[in-house]
Design goal:
- By secondary structure, the protein is mainly beta.
- It folds into 2 domains: about 1-20 and about 250-460, Jelly Rolls; about 20-250, Peptidase G1 (Jelly Rolls).
- The protein is built from 1 helix and 34 strands.
- The protein has a 17-stranded mixed beta sheet that branches. It has a 17-stranded mixed beta sheet that branches.
- The radius of gyration is 26 Å and the shape is elongated.
- About 50% of the residues are buried.
């Protein structure tokens, strides 16, 4: 039984259609024009928090400006959600640097200017949501930075001068920020709109974000590299390279349109030594197939069989009960002694000790019962466990569409650990994919989206 379940997981990951939401508005960087001379596109950049554009390519920059529409706050202050424009030196760990940060939600203290090394200062302006705010940084090439912010809606302005000495700013950048573990939206959501953006070099060459210098797109991912899940990224440039949006991105979605489908989340990369989650045991469903089977797994995806895998399976069936929670590695397995009832909180986890053994643990925290089973980990010494999965499995041939959207499972406190000891939620730092049953136009079952910093989600049967 456990071997069958692993084959289903492999098939779902390999045979499904993966769609990455990367909506863009307007022209690409290469096609935007400024009339300022030859333009070039630099290599893309990646970070763990910024989505926008940078300029460089050997030029020195004395001026950067843009106009922002202040949005309502959609991210917690801990995750920023702010906008930034900056002049800095790319080869000196970001120093020297001059920056203006505009906070989402507006209000007193929402605009900060700073020179580093140096000081930060809050401006007196108090923009409201929807206000148009023009911001600029000008280095006079005589030891001073001038920071200006103008609330075009309210008609207020302030300029601050800071002494910075003789500096070289060889990079200008404009971006929206989403730092830390950010719960992705269900659909792409714009954080900021940048318009009328301009850059000037020390020699007086003018341009928009593109100009007679190299321009690169900056994307924020869960790992800070191209291998991670995209968290925040810009739209394409338009209006001659002066405008773009910074967007919070939805997770890539894998649609499984077949008789056997997974609904949940898969982490890739790692490799992973631990996966765990807490689920609320659902009530019995009619038909029984509507409950789905909850699964957590550590496995290797890719390459010839046999491959390592470890899975815990929870069969809701008639509402839990004896033998409803099982474990296995493919060639070996069994059932736990825990016997959850509907409504019970059931914690399950798999740990690979990196020395040839898996530990499977199931704990009914409602009843206070627990059991841990240790099994050999065949093939894990030769192939890394590069998939960690928290999901449900449905036989779509026997699932009956409910009269209204119905939540079946609730997962909470989900966490994953790599071989090297990096801890995270479902969201990373690693690449994460959402699995959905059905097609983009006809969903059978899907998730409610991740919450609580990527730890929690629900699985829903959708009315059809």
């Amino acid at each position: 039984m456990m071997h069958k379940l692993t084959r289903v997981l492999y098939a779902a990951a390999a045979a499904s259609l993966t769609l990455t939401t990367m909506g863009a508005t307007g022209a690409s960087t290469a096609s935007a024009t400024t009339g300022g001379g030859a333009q070039s596109t630099g290599p893309p950049g990646y970070s763990q928090g910024w989505g926008g554009y940078t300029t460089g390519g050997g030029s020195w920059f004395r001026f950067v400006s843009t106009t922002l529409t202040v949005p309502a706050r959609t991210l917690s202050a801990a995750n920023s959600g702010d906008a930034i424009i900056s002049l800095n030196h790319a080869q000196h760990s970001g120093l020297p640097e001059a920056e203006i940060i505009v906070g989402a939600g507006g209000g007193p203290g929402s605009i900060t200017v700073g020179a580093h090394p140096g000081n930060d200062q809050l401006l007196r302006l108090s923009p409201q949501v929807g206000d148009q705010v023009a911001v600029s940084i000008y280095y006079d090439q005589h030891g001073h930075d001038l920071f200006t912010a103008t609330d075009l809606t309210q008609g207020t302005a302030q300029t601050v001068q800071m002494t910075v000495g003789n500096v070289i700013y060889n990079k200008a950048w404009l971006a929206g920020m989403a730092v830390g573990t950010v719960d992705p939206p269900q659909a792409d959501m714009r954080l900021w709109q940048f318009t009328n953006s301009h850059v000037t070099t020390y020699t007086g060459a003018h341009g928009t974000i593109v100009g007679p210098w190299a321009t690169s797109e900056l994307t924020g991912t869960s790992t800070g590299t191209s291998a991670g899940t995209i968290v925040v990224s810009p739209s394409g440039l338009w209006n001659g390279g002066a405008n773009f949006g910074a967007w919070l991105r939805a997770l890539p979605v894998t649609y499984t349109n077949g008789p056997q489908a997974n609904v949940g989340y898969a982490d890739t990369g790692g490799p992973f030594r631990f996966v765990g989650t807490t689920m609320t045991m659902p009530a019995a469903q009619t038909p029984q197939a509507n409950s789905g089977e909850a699964l957590i797994s550590l496995l290797h995806q890719g390459g010839p069989a046999p491959l390592p895998d470890a899975t815990i399976q929870v069969l809701p069936g008639l509402g839990g009960g004896p033998a409803s929670v099982s474990y296995g590695t493919g060639p070996a397995g069994g059932t736990f002694t825990v016997s959850p009832k509907p409504g019970d909180q059931l914690r399950v986890s798999i740990f690979y000790d990196q020395h040839g053994h898996y530990s499977f643990t199931a704990t009914d925290t409602t009843q206070g019962t627990t059991q841990t089973v240790t099994l050999a980990a065949p093939y894990a010494d030769s192939e890394p466990l590069n998939y960690a999965v928290v999901t449900t499995w449905f036989d779509t041939r026997t699932v009956a569409g409910p009269p209204a959207d119905t939540q079946i499972w609730q997962f909470a406190s989900s966490n994953v650990t790599t071989y090297s000891g990096v801890h995270g939620s479902i969201l990373g730092p690693w690449a994460t994919t959402q699995w959905t049953a059905g097609t983009s136009g006809a969903v059978v079952a899907d998730t409610s989206g991740l919450s609580n910093a990527g730890q929690d989600f629900g699985v829903w049967l959708r009315h059809r």
